[in-house]
TrEMBL record:
Protein name: Endonuclease 8 1
The keyword Cytoplasm is assigned to this record: no
Molecular functions per Gene Ontology: class I DNA-(apurinic or apyrimidinic site) endonuclease activity; damaged DNA binding; double-stranded DNA binding; oxidized purine nucleobase lesion DNA N-glycosylase activity; oxidized pyrimidine nucleobase lesion DNA N-glycosylase activity; zinc ion binding
Leading EC class: lyase
Catalysis performed (reactions): 2'-deoxyribonucleotide-(2'-deoxyribose 5'-phosphate)-2'-deoxyribonucleotide-DNA = a 3'-end 2'-deoxyribonucleotide-(2,3-dehydro-2,3-deoxyribose 5'-phosphate)-DNA + a 5'-end 5'-phospho-2'-deoxyribonucleoside-DNA + H(+)
InterPro entries: FPG_cat, FPG_N, H2TH_FPG, Ribosomal_uS13-like_H2TH, Znf_DNA_glyclase/AP_lyase, Znf_FPG/IleRS
Gene behind the chain: nei
FPG-type domain boundaries: 234-268
PANTHER family for this protein: ENDONUCLEASE 8, ENDONUCLEASE 8 1
Key words, A-Z: DNA damage, DNA repair, DNA-binding, Endonuclease, Glycosidase, Hydrolase, Lyase, Metal-binding, Multifunctional enzyme, Nuclease, Zinc, Zinc-finger
Family indicated by similarity: Belongs to the FPG family.
Organism for this UniProt entry: Saccharopolyspora thermophila
Length: 270
C-alpha cells in the first residue's frame, strides 16, 4: 500500500496540473458517474493529502476523497485524451493534462463535514504543516501496544507504512516490541523529527531512502539494493540478510498482519 509521501506527491502533482482551472470529470467505469456529473465543469480548487488519503477540492461540500488501498493507481498524461484502459473509476481532464484513477479502495464525493469527521479520526501526519505530534504522543505514552504496531495505526499517526515504520525504528536503535508507554518522550521526539525529514525526502524524490550517507553503497563498497520498491534501506525486506551495520541477520516476524523487520543486535531489548 502506498505510504503517505506518495499521496502528498500526488496532491502536489494534481495541484500543479489542475488547480485554478475548470475541469471535466468523467467515470468511464461508471461507478463514480453520479458524482462525476456533479463535479463536471467546476473549478478544481486544490488538492491535499492527510496520511494515506487524497482530497480534491471543488468548493463547499464538493470534495473527492480517494484512498488508493493496495491496488489503486493514478496515471497522468498530456492532452490529447487516450481511450480509457482498464477500469477507470475517475478521469479528470484539464486544459493541458488529464489523470485517470484505477482500482482505489475509496473514491467518493464528501461534504466538508464528512471530510472533517474523517480527518478527525486520523492521527497527525508528519508531512502536514498543521500536524500536532503531541496528539500521537498522548496515545503512545499510555499504550501497552508495541511501538511497531502503534506507528502503523493510522488513528495514532497518519501516513506511516511498513517501510517507514521498520526503518525509523532501526535508525534509532529502538526494539520494535517496546510498549508505547515505555518508549519515553525523548525517543518519540526523535522518531517524529526523523519521519518529518525522511517522508519529505520521499515526496521530493519519489521513493523511500533511509540509509545515512556514510552507509551508502558508494561509501561502503557494498552492492546497491535491487528491489522493485527502489531506494536504499537498512532492514525492510532484508530478512536473513546481514545488517548493514553489524552483520547480524535481519529478523522478520508477522505483527498485526504485516511483516516487521529489525536487527536483533542493533535493536536489542533494553
Amino acid at each position: 500500500m502506498p505510504e503517505g509521501h506518495t499521496l502528498h506527491r500526488l496532491a502536489r502533482l494534481h495541484g500543479d496540473l489542475f488547480a485554478g482551472t475548470e475541469v471535466r470529470v468523467r467515470s468511464p467505469q461508471g461507478r463514480f458517474a453520479a458524482s462525476a456529473e456533479l463535479l463536471d465543469g467546476l473549478v478544481f480548487e486544490r488538492a491535499e493529502a492527510h496520511g494515506k488519503h487524497l482530497f480534491h477540492h471543488y468548493g463547499p461540500d464538493r470534495i473527492v476523497h480517494v484512498h488508493l488501498g493496495l491496488y489503486g493507481t493514478f496515471t497522468e498524461a498530456e492532452l490529447p485524451l487516450a481511450e480509457p484502459r482498464g477500469q477507470v473509476r475517475m478521469r479528470v481532464i484539464g486544459r493541458t493534462h488529464w489523470a485517470d484513477l484505477r482500482g482505489p479502495t475509496k473514491c467518493e464525493l464528501l461534504t466538508d463535514a464528512e471530510v472533517a469527521a474523517l480527518r478527525g479520526r486520523l492521527g497527525p501526519d508528519p508531512l502536514r504543516a498543521d500536524a500536532e505530534p503531541d496528539r500521537a504522543w498522548e496515545r503512545i505514552s499510555r499504550s501497552r501496544t508495541s511501538i511497531a504496531a502503534l506507528l502503523m495505526d493510522q488513528k495514532v499517526l497518519a501516513g506511516v507504512g511498513n517501510v517507514y515504520r521498520a526503518e525509523v525504528l532501526f535508525r534509532h536503535g529502538i526494539p520494535p516490541l517496546t510498549p508505547g508507554r515505555a518508549l519515553g518522550r525523548e525517543r518519540w521526539e526523535l522518531i517524529w523529527a526523523d519521519l518529518v525529514e525522511l517522508m519529505a525526502d520521499g515526496v521530493r524524490v519519489g521513493r523511500i531512502d533511509t540509509v545515512r550517507p556514510e552507509h551508502l553503497p558508494e561509501v561502503t563498497g557494498r552492492a546497491p539494493r535491487r528491489d522493485r520498491h527502489g531506494g536504499e534501506v537498512y532492514v525492510y525486506r532484508r530478512a536473513g540478510m546481514p545488517c548493514l551495520l553489524c552483520g547480524t541477520p535481519v529478523a522478520m516476524t508477522d505483527l498485526v498482519g504485516r511483516k516487521l523487520y529489525w536487527c536483533p543486535t542493533c535493536q536489542a531489548e533494553d
